[in-house]
């Protein structure tokens, strides 16, 4: 199955410690992605972005000098960009836009800030029942999910550390990765790094970097005349589950169950049909919860299932092949870069980390404190 829409251009901005403004990084990502597609700014009539202000798409459109017919500034954290792909597909099919750019960038490392969140309003559940305990946002919330998961399923921190170890091995194959050249790590390295919020150490946590990316979408008909092999959007799905943790019945079950089922169902595929998987790895536990929810393994099985090199380079389940948020780049909202890597893998452009023969990919974004979930299924030559 196909939506009739394809991603035709992708790019990153500068990554790491850039010293650039957010709009400067956004401009890099957008213009590089358009160049990748063989298009120009004047071709853009749809724009989706967030993270600049409450008027993100308006502000970026003005900065770029474009007047889009369609915009989207959905703020849903790290899943927003997978959601925006779905909105872009719908807009193109409805005739609201012909060429849509989805983008994000942040300069949080240069700005010496990890926070992208606003002040919690005093009337919200989290302000009343959670903030008084001074949790680290979002780390302590993911730590609670990890603690519950390890306890319920009898898993170990050593098993959880495999997520970070595998991510580093992929990053060592990616010259753009923040940890490229830093050398491999072991489970002991993860466990013995500074404890931040039990059971998660520094080694279980994503990077803090500048950076961003962009993807360009248009109809399959138009894509046939452009510079790159089109990567079809085959399916998409999303769920929004909670703002606070007090609203969550089970910390080991996430909304990815529904978003993944919808995306795969629209694509007419099953988890076994997916060649490359890119999931949000804000923390090691995020990966375990997500691959279970998406149906790649059963509940409570993930940490056993990923052992033995399965998710490392050369394993039979290529996961987070760029090095992920744990070792490649994490500019605060990582979802856009999941899409960039998935497209590069399907176009056969990933260099030393290329998954041979990859024809299908799944990108899954997670936002907030396991709050929002969005899945996109992509394919080529089908």
TrEMBL record:
Spell out the Pfam families in the cross-references: Thiolase_C_1
Q: Which InterPro entries match?
A: Thiolase, Thiolase-like, Thiolase_C_2
Give residue ranges for domain Thiolase C-terminal: 237-379
Q: Which domain of life is it from?
A: Bacteria
What is this protein called in UniProt?
Thiolase
Origin organism is: Dactylosporangium roseum
Q: Lineage of the native species?
A: Bacteria, Bacillati, Actinomycetota, Actinomycetes, Micromonosporales
């Amino acid at each position: 199955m196909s939506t009739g829409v394809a991603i035709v251009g992708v790019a990153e901005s500068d990554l790491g410690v850039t010293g650039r403004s957010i709009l400067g990084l956004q401009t890099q990502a957008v213009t590089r992605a358009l160049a990748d597609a063989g298009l120009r700014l004047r071709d853009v009539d749809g724009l989706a972005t967030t993270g600049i202000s409450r008027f993100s798409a308006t502000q970026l459109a003005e900065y770029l000098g474009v007047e889009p017919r369609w915009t989207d500034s959905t703020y849903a954290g790290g899943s927003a960009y997978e959601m925006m792909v779905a909105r872009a597909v719908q807009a193109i099919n409805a005739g609201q836009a012909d060429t849509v750019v989805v983008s994000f960038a942040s300069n949080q490392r240069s700005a010496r800030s990890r926070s992208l969140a606003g002040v919690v309003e005093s009337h919200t559940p989290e302000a009343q029942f959670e903030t008084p305990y001074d949790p680290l946002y979002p780390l302590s919330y993911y730590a609670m999910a990890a603690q519950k998961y390890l306890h319920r399923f009898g898993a170990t921190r050593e098993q959880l550390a495999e997520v970070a170890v595998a991510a580093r091995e992929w990053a060592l194959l990616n010259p753009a990765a923040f940890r490229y050249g830093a050398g491999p790590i072991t489970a002991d390295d993860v466990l013995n790094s500074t404890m931040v919020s039990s059971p998660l150490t520094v080694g279980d946590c994503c990077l803090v970097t500048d950076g961003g990316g962009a993807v360009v979408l248009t109809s399959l008909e138009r894509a046939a005349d452009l510079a790159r092999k089109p990567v079809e959007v085959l399916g998409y799905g999303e769920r929004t589950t909670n703002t606070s943790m007090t609203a969550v019945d089970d910390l080991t079950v996430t909304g990815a169950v529904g978003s993944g089922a919808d995306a795969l169902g629209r694509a007419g595929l099953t988890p076994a049909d997916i060649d490359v998987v890119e999931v949000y790895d804000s923390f090691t536990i995020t990966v375990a919860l997500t691959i279970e929810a998406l149906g790649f393994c059963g509940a409570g099985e993930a940490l056993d299932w990923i052992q033995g090199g399965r998710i490392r380079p050369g394993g039979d389940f290529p996961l987070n092949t760029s090095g992920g948020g744990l070792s490649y780049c994490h500019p605060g909202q990582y979802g856009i870069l999941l899409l960039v890597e998935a497209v590069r893998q399907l176009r056969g452009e990933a260099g030393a980390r290329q998954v041979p023969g990859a024809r299908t990919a799944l990108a899954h974004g997670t936002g907030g404190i396991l709050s929002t979930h969005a899945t996109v299924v992509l394919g080529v030559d089908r």
